[in-house]
């Protein structure tokens, strides 16, 4: 498929269409204020992205409860006090012509006490000395996701993306290794998926028919089972519960090494599913115009740009100007990132990503 097709519009089940096939992935920047409020660095980052040609821009993971925090200086959406900053962020994205979404996040058992987190495991066995959250606590956190989505809508965002990846709370509940509950949120695949489904259905109920809902799903680690995730996704597609699925792959070309799907790409296992009006995109080592175009050939409706968008903020505009565009090679110097507009806080975060920032720079 020609790179040109990346610039065709894409309709969604709810709300406005995407103007092209580029979505900015949610990126942990750790540059918010300590209470989760939007900082001047958050705002400047969003203003840069808003002028960079994306069709939809997701914020970094935003806490739906204060105790669900995983990172120092993590963005928050758990309080009405966060609304003014979130509103300025949504306004900047809208003025640049893109759609916007807040990524809704709760760290679950991975919450970090040193920054105020309260671990909330699905099982007694996951975190030493911490009991599984009760059924009532599951439902409280579910309602916190829904309330956070309403705040995003009040702030002017077009939608939210529900973070169901990387062992965070919704992903944790999907895992038979991390979820040995005996209530209605544990046991069968249907029960383990109930938390996620109730969050999504609740957001639709409260935010109405014009609000967009995405779902971020990862497939690896934390005891997740590919066959089960495929089954859950098929049900969500069939019921058209979401507007788009964001497959968070470490490598969009990754091949399954064992089991029933051995030899197939992870991506193909999901692109082969009937998805009705739901759109599907993938992240994972998309560093060139060519690779972005190939993903449309492989069944994606859109692509999620992550590290390539940090290396070069206006990745879509670069691709539009040059169908042979390739991202700068990593590692890059801290000065290179500064010149591109990254804050010192963001650069410090990127030093923690293997091979991203040149040591000593």
UniProtKB/TrEMBL annotation:
Protein's recorded name: NADH-dependent flavin oxidoreductase
Domain (NADH:flavin oxidoreductase/NADH oxidase N-terminal) ranges: 5-321
Signal peptide: none
Organism lineage string: Bacteria, Pseudomonadati, Bacteroidota, Sphingobacteriia, Sphingobacteriales
Keyword set, alphabetical order: Flavoprotein, Oxidoreductase
SUPFAM superfamilies registered for this protein in UniProt: FMN-linked oxidoreductases (SSF51395)
Pfam families found in the cross-reference section: Oxidored_FMN (PF00724)
CDD domains: OYE_like_FMN_family (cd02803)
């Amino acid at each position: 498929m020609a790179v040109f097709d990346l610039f065709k519009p894409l309709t969604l089940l709810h709300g406005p269409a995407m103007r092209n096939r580029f979505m900015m992935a949610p990126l942990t920047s750790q540059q918010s204020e300590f209470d989760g409020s939007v900082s001047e660095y958050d705002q400047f980052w969003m203003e840069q992205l808003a002028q960079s040609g994306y069709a939809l821009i997701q914020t970094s993971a935003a806490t739906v409860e204060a105790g669900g925090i995983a990172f120092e200086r993590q963005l928050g959406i758990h309080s009405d006090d966060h609304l003014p900053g979130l509103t300025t962020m949504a306004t900047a994205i809208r003025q640049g012509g893109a759609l916007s979404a807040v990524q809704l996040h709760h760290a679950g058992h991975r919450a970090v006490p040193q920054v105020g987190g309260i671990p909330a495991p699905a099982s007694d066995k996951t975190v030493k000395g911490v009991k599984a959250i009760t059924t009532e606590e599951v439902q409280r956190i579910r309602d916190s996701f829904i309330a956070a989505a309403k705040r995003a809508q009040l702030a002017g965002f077009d939608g939210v993306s529900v973070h169901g990846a990387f062992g965070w709370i919704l992903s944790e509940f999907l895992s038979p290794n991390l979820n040995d509950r005996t209530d209605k949120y544990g046991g069968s695949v249907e029960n383990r998926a109930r938390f996620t489904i109730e969050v999504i259905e609740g957001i639709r109920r409260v935010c109405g028919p014009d609000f967009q809902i995405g779902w971020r799903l990862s497939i690896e680690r934390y005891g997740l089972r590919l066959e089960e995730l495929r089954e859950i996704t098929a049900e969500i597609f069939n019921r058209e519960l979401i507007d788009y699925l964001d497959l968070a792959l470490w490598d969009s070309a990754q091949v399954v090494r064992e089991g029933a799907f051995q030899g197939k790409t992870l991506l193909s296992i999901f692109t082969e599913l009937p998805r009705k009006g739901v759109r599907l995109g993938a992240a994972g080592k998309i560093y060139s115009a060519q690779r972005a175009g190939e993903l449309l050939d492989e069944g994606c409706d859109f692509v999620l740009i992550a590290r390539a968008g940090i290396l070069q903020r206006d990745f879509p505009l670069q691709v539009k100007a040059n169908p042979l565009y390739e991202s700068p090679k990593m590692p890059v110097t801290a000065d290179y990132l500064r010149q591109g507009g990254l804050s010192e806080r963001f650069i410090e975060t990127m030093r923690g990503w293997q091979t991203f920032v040149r040591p000593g720079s």
